[in-house]
Amino acid sequence: MMDRRTVWSICIFLFVALWPLAAEEVTIRVVCDDNYPPYVFRNNAGEVQGMIPDQWKAWSRVTGIKVRFDAMDWSKAQEEIRAGRADVIDSIFKTPDRERIFDFLEPYADIPVSVYFHKSISGIGSVQDLTGFRIAVKEGDAAIDVLQSKGITDFLYFPSYEAIIRAAQAKDVRIFCIDEPPANYFLYKYNLEMQFKKGFTLYAGQFHRAVRKSRSALPDGRDLYMVLKKGFEAIPDEEYKNIEKRWLGQEIGRPINWLPILMVGSIGLGLILLLILFTIALRIKVAQRTAELIQKNRALIRSERKNQAFINALPDLFLILDRDGRYIDIKTSNPAILIGEERDLLGRTIADVGMSPVLVSQFLDAISKALQSQSVVVIEYDLNVIEGLRHFEARIVRLAGEQDLVLFIVRDITEQHRMQEALALSLREKETLLKEIHHRVKNNLQVVSSLIQLQAASLTSEHDQVLLEETQQRIRTMAQVHELLYRSDRLSSIEMKEYLEHLLDELSSAYYETRLQVNITMDIDPIEVSLDMATPLGLIFNEAVTNAFKYAYKGRNGGFLTISLKRLPTGGRRLLISDDGPGLPENWQERAKTSLGFTLIETLVQQIKGHMEINSETGTSISITF
Fold first, then answer.
1. Are 30 and 81 spatial neighbours (Cβ–Cβ below 8 Å)?
2. What is the pLDDT of residue 374?
3. Is the pTM of this model over 0.85?
């Protein structure tokens, strides 16, 4: 046996060895959202307060473990616990992604999560209606995963719920998703409770406390999860209730004061007598109003019968559809133009009754345009109805006083449509015939031009050859009109700029050597003229430019030729052909009487009811106004 001295030595050794463990205080760090009233938020002095801090104080008192409670932005709180810099995270929703990382304690509060929108917005009744809107959310919020799972991806992120409400107050946010307790608190705090509406509850989550799965044991070897669980279970229910009363408040009880009740009872007896008299008078009044109502009802029935007779007398189909293309009402005198029986259509959408996807898209687009504007939207479409395949015209307009309903006035225009198609086919055939006529006229003129060229080749007189070449050029000028009409989509008019440019190219080929020495300037306005006007103008142009090439640049190494066709402010047109040659001889007017070219120009000017001026002071200038 050990002696007494040995026993005391062992006791002293064990006391010294175990004293640090006994003396070491255990402290855990808890992180939480710092802006979630009434569960946790800061007072005016910046101190953290609320139901959650009070519950942790009670837990610390029960377990003897100190708690370092840090409230911060929610996304930062999640970052701290994930990085292992915190032991516990509070007020966290359980999600599948988070369950892979954390062990969750039992829930202690049910939290509805709702979508709110500004009173100026309507039509948001479900999560699908949020498509196309930007939703304000808190960074790291579990609601983001829920919204994304339902196809909503356009978010505007904020560090806290209060930051979202402040942005809403500044009109930077119109729609947001927030847990209901802080939403009610902040909307009232910032006087926005009348400006924003609750659209719908997205889902209901639950507050948990959670620890990391990869956690370490406490210094005394215990598991933190079990210490947390047992500690919160050990807090008396009365203390939980007191904490809730402090932050959620309690109903104010009122003592019963019998004196007012007796006074009210006495007054009530008197009022009963008055009420009896009033009831008698009211019955008389009701009888009178009932008689008036019967008369109005009869008048309304007569009006309804007139309206029905009016609808029956019209060939039109009247439909009332909502924004989704759902049949709300149907009025027609000819049920055969419906896509199905009326009883089978009411309450169903156009996509459900057998319309093609293309036609459904056309209808919905027209409905959207009519709802967005006050104007009438007109569409035409083919539809296989009870009577068969028909062509319809629909006029769509938004119903007065309704936000989601439109009126379709549908007419069966099958016969008119067939007539229009027949007329269009006939017109295309006539256009083809006219093009062929112009083509053949052009070919015939080219044959005549070729015959003249063959005849000119057999002549020995140079003068006669020149005359035939000029005649040949005039024929080509007329043929060019028919060539342009044949190639054009417009069979009744000629674009003068293109026509004159083609004529100038042909003349340049005929007078190639002279053309190389001349600097030509063309200024042609976009002017279209008829065939009767184009041919004379082309011949005038041909004669004037030919004379310039033949006489204005003879014996010279260069020169200028200006050609313009302009619109006049008076509504007329002016063709100007001007060269910088030696000008006309003094007796040019006498010689012009025997000149075929001048005679042809004067005759053509008279034909187009124009006026010609010739100036020969510096070069030769021919101006024709028509």
1. no
2. 79
3. no
